[in-house]
Amino acid sequence: MAKRTKGEGDAPGRLSSTVENYLKCLYEEQQKCPGELVGMGRIATAMQVSPGTATAMMKMLGNSGFVDYEPRGGSHLTKEGQEEALQILRRHRLVELFLVRILGLDWSEVHTEADSLEHAISDKVLARIDELLGFPTVDPHGDPIPSPSGRIEHRVLTNLTDCRQGARVRLARVMDETAAFLQLLGQHGLQPGEWVTVSESNEIADAITLVSDNGGSVTLGTSAATKLLVERDDEA
Amino acid sequence: MAKRTKGEGDAPGRLSSTVENYLKCLYEEQQKCPGELVGMGRIATAMQVSPGTATAMMKMLGNSGFVDYEPRGGSHLTKEGQEEALQILRRHRLVELFLVRILGLDWSEVHTEADSLEHAISDKVLARIDELLGFPTVDPHGDPIPSPSGRIEHRVLTNLTDCRQGARVRLARVMDETAAFLQLLGQHGLQPGEWVTVSESNEIADAITLVSDNGGSVTLGTSAATKLLVERDDEA
DNA sequence: CTATATATTTTGACTAGCCAAAGTGTCAAG
DNA sequence: CTTGACACTTTGGCTAGTCAAAATATATAG
Known about the structure:
The structure is a homodimer. Chain A is of the alpha+beta class. Chain A is built from eight helices and eight strands.
């Protein structure tokens, strides 16, 4: 019933890496469609397990109090489950930033690395990393880093597809951690913090062309462009 | 039969943390009594498992080619097993040094931390850490760090109990990673690299008193003193 | 209101690790 | 040469996590 580990492989006192991964997954799926229950199919797909496995795990997490599981309906995190998930997300994102800033890895590769490290890292080590990075609030992809108490800083961001042609905006967040996609962006000088101009936005061609202040330029299809969130200095 | 992981919890392509721990354990036990086979009892004690579990694991590792297992005799690492063990040791020790030097943890606490991290860290991350640390050859306890190819630098070290009174030697290695012991040494300014003078060595009292160049001083019983290896500039 | 498609749940089975306890070698002392 | 003592191995059984396939709901189309 979701016991804490005694410390072989995972950091001591933690839930098993498996359980942690399900909680993280559920949190992320919940973000995609806020309010609604997450079905077993989605969990199974996201976790790359069979539907039966997802059902079994949700039942178990239900008994442990981490999720509310409605048979044939779906599940969502309880308050307790959400708190756990935010801690895991915090570790994941701090580790990602650490890998980029301190160890100099490319932002396209840190997601995978962080997936293993997030389970092994102790609170003490995490605290040191946090300090070393100067208590950051966003990771290399612009995703917010929950505070130690699990609070998340909200930013008002606009989807790139909602920006009119000619708009000058700042790239704030990339909602796709696929290595190839991030490499593409990086090659054209696009990363959170960069200022870009929407030089062309053509609904019929289904494409948006971006010119970055640092010289790069790319054209993205709408489905790729929706992955990018930007910050406008103010007005619509 | 000792498969490589696909990457849930442990770093991808690695043996399971459990298997890695047995290999590391076997390596360490072999170091204690070079040449002889390691009995199941010792493995069971070191791994904190029942004897039956040790037997089962040694059989399995035998089939995988990592150890030579002689029923009712004991086991020892094969060439392949030794190579694996040295990689694990390399990760463990580089992580320890990293935790001390970059994250500023105390040397008494890094052993436990490294025990979880050593399984989660990828080759790429390890390479960056190695570089960041300047390709070090010893960890915070003075234990040698195997090279990427698994070579270990040999140093001629003397046991502290073999030093005559008045000898001025350099502390090189501490063969006990117990937090309390390391804290004690640290509190008296004793750590690898420090020069110390054997101010008193009394076989009858079973005690050795050390004065460190940086002011500290401690008296250790023989059983504690054997844990310390020192370097003499030359002559006996 | 039925029939079918789809999502979900159940069932039976498997692997890696582990334990307790019963069984079996081995060796030294008598 | 026999007898313990002790170390080791075997056996049966447990949990976490997984899958495949059968059983069951649910929703939607007709």
